[in-house]
Amino acid sequence: RQAQYRQLRDRPAVTRDGVEIALQLNAGLLVDLPHLHETGAVGIGLFRTELQFMIAERMPSAKDQQQLYAAVFAAAGDAPITFRSLDIGGDKLLPYMPRVEEENPALGWRAIRIALDRPALLRIQARALLKAAAGRHLRIMFPMVASTAEFERAKLLVEGEINWLKRQSSPLPERLSLGAMVEVPSLLFEIGEIAQAADFLSIGSNDLMQFLFAADRGNKLVASRFDPLSRAPLRALTAIVEGAAERNCPVTVCGEMAGRPLEAMLLIGLGFRSLSMSAASIGPIKAMILELDTRPLKELIRREMDHAGTYESLRPALTDFAERH
Ligand code: PEP
Ligand code: MG
């Protein structure tokens, strides 16, 4: 199997009916970068910057951050990289940061919430990214955005750093794109506004499913109780892909869902054209795409979703489709 997947490395991920899918890599440390070349992924769809912070014994300095980002750019060559700003808090604690006691850490002070309350953190990181990306296309996305207003506030912080660098006559990125992760369900109800405000969106399906079903993603008793292929998530995903398309806003799925063949097949059927996943998933997902015809798949999804009766999940119908095709 592994050898078989390696052979697919240089083949573009195009379905039998000619639909091209951008397969990207999830990464977080420099050691992940060789996977880009090994798998033939077209870019890094999610670079989890918090990993550098989690493995360090003290807060990485601005210089440490800039060095890592510059090394990532160098290792990625021309491939695009989407850096996610610090996603800490919740279950991702930093040993050197004072612990805040919270009753519900997943719903607590985390990610962009910390960034907006302690803007120095985001400003230092943004500056490190802007400097490391001199002359390149820099893509930054913010985690756990709950409203368009939050996104706008984070954007202002980054723009403040650009102005500062301009005053220093410091070299700037050739281009900057700012995106929002869609992983808090409130954004579903202003998908038009966020798609208008952001340069791109990326669905964090792990958190989106956790919050949609109010089921802790780390709690074995409930984590797999609800199926992402059931009605509510399908409608949520449809609303996102359609809302983004209406505003010409590119959208990627970067949660674990994108790396599972049946789920990825469904996402493609719903209209997603960019998926980001762990290195080990690229081969199997590409093999699936090369065998896929999206026309009967779309037909099947439409039929099943319009079906008025109760259904638990599209999983059996999709499994059957996958076996027959
Ligand atoms: C997600 O929530 O799906 C995601 C990609 O981010 P993380 O798993 O790092 O929370
Ligand atoms: Mg998340």
UniProtKB/TrEMBL annotation:
Transmembrane segments: none
Cellular localization per UniProt: Cytoplasm
Top-rank lineage group of the source organism: Bacteria
Family statement: Belongs to the PEP-utilizing enzyme family.
Name by which UniProt lists this protein: phosphoenolpyruvate--protein phosphotransferase
Organism of this sequence: Enterovirga aerilata
Source taxonomy: Bacteria, Pseudomonadati, Pseudomonadota, Alphaproteobacteria, Hyphomicrobiales
